């Protein structure tokens, strides 16, 4: 339990660190270049881990509808947008807006059952949760 | 200001979309095969975008500092931590903590000015704002349980992110 919480905390912290690190790197070599380098080095490291742990096989990939193979490509636009947003409005505001948009998008996809996701109704507590988040952002900018 | 907000919204919407795509791959292949594929695709897309928008400047990397070369390891660490966290806590609890950690760390970077261009002063408003957002995240994730709609599906939440 405690170990799980620590992993989750570290994971979340690293997601933000990723954005901030990309932002820092972009000052020296450019934003698209920063995205390219971090994805390339991450890819190499992940491939090495894959070879070591032998988890799953590439054969299974063929069972995945081809559209979903390309999810990773979104990362280029995500990194570019996030890095540029950080330059305009700072880290906290960027992450707050990003999270709200992320949850709202998940909302829409869940309620429509798009992309093979099990269809779920949007619930009142979820709406209240998002509204609280938006209220929080407004307070943040007061 | 408006530009920054719009870009953050675009990023968030795409994170959601990417997470769902990645989960579809992850459901059939293992998490490291998925991560390798995702980062490989990210590299190809970024490289192409860089060639289009930056041209030959894509290859002028003389300002690279040594640690830039290992920055990709952060993304791999993210996947490892998330997989471990979700395995131990389940997706709802784990992703709630991840979202809260993301936001709290963001505030930390802004107030310390570490790795960012300008330091932003920590005001009571900032702290209250972040706390309200955190309450919002918790209500979003756990509100249904409190209301007691147990009949709802038990499918893992799609809102956790596996790296970017």
Automatic annotation (TrEMBL), chain A:
<feature type="transmembrane region" description="Helical">
    <location>
        <begin position="31"/>
        <end position="53"/>
    </location>
</feature>
<dbReference type="InterPro" id="IPR006750">
    <property type="entry name" value="YdcZ"/>
</dbReference>
<keyword id="KW-0472">Membrane</keyword>
<feature type="transmembrane region" description="Helical">
    <location>
        <begin position="65"/>
        <end position="83"/>
    </location>
</feature>
<protein>
    <submittedName>
        <fullName>Transporter family-2 protein</fullName>
    </submittedName>
</protein>
<feature type="transmembrane region" description="Helical">
    <location>
        <begin position="122"/>
        <end position="140"/>
    </location>
</feature>
<keyword id="KW-1133">Transmembrane helix</keyword>
<dbReference type="Pfam" id="PF04657">
    <property type="entry name" value="DMT_YdcZ"/>
</dbReference>
<keyword id="KW-0812">Transmembrane</keyword>
<feature type="transmembrane region" description="Helical">
    <location>
        <begin position="89"/>
        <end position="110"/>
    </location>
</feature>
Automatic annotation (TrEMBL), chain B:
<keyword id="KW-1133">Transmembrane helix</keyword>
<keyword id="KW-0812">Transmembrane</keyword>
<dbReference type="InterPro" id="IPR006750">
    <property type="entry name" value="YdcZ"/>
</dbReference>
<feature type="transmembrane region" description="Helical">
    <location>
        <begin position="37"/>
        <end position="55"/>
    </location>
</feature>
<keyword id="KW-0472">Membrane</keyword>
<feature type="transmembrane region" description="Helical">
    <location>
        <begin position="67"/>
        <end position="86"/>
    </location>
</feature>
<dbReference type="Pfam" id="PF04657">
    <property type="entry name" value="DMT_YdcZ"/>
</dbReference>
<feature type="transmembrane region" description="Helical">
    <location>
        <begin position="121"/>
        <end position="140"/>
    </location>
</feature>
<feature type="transmembrane region" description="Helical">
    <location>
        <begin position="92"/>
        <end position="109"/>
    </location>
</feature>
<protein>
    <submittedName>
        <fullName>Transporter family-2 protein</fullName>
    </submittedName>
</protein>
